[in-house]
Design goal:
This protein is of the alpha+beta class. It is 62% helix and 15% strand. It contains four helices and six strands; from the N terminus they run ααααββββββ. The strands form two sheets. The chain has a three-stranded antiparallel sheet. Strands 2-6-3 form a three-stranded mixed sheet, with no helix packed on it. The radius of gyration is 45 Å and the shape is elongated.
Length: 185
Amino acid sequence: MSDKNKADEVNEPFLEEQPDNDTANEREEFVGEEEQSIEEQLQDELAKEKDKFLRLFAEFENYKRRTSKERMDLFKTAGQEVIVSLLPVLDDFERALKELSKSEDKEMFKGVELINGKLRDTLKSKGMEELGVKQGDVFDAEIHDAITQIPAPNKKLKGKILDVVERGYKLGDKIIRHPKVVVGN
């Protein structure tokens, strides 16, 4: 064999076993990009899911806070409708007590007075309070309901309450019935 043939035989297997360097580098880069893009995709998906979770958690916390506040408000004024409907009964008791005090039957007066006291105590235990309005107080349009104005008997009573026609009540911090008053002008 000639030297040339020997060199060809030696070089041929070497060429077959060695891959093309450019092709191998491209494959490694492509595989690296593919792995990197999958990793980036997974990180993006994870970030999206974390964001969804945080938003859902915040929304749930807001829901809990809102419903808790609504529940507390409901408990505070749960009996408002019933209490407001009983206010005319309180007014009737006052009128009845005035008339019974004039009569000679003191036992009936005491009985009605006891019932009136029990009703007031029960309503007070549920959070109802009477607005303390009396003659001579300064008129406040936020609190009082002026049903009429009459000339004041003297200058000191101008703009002040001359008479309380109907008592006012509040439940907690909320006024459920404004006192009806006569104001001097």
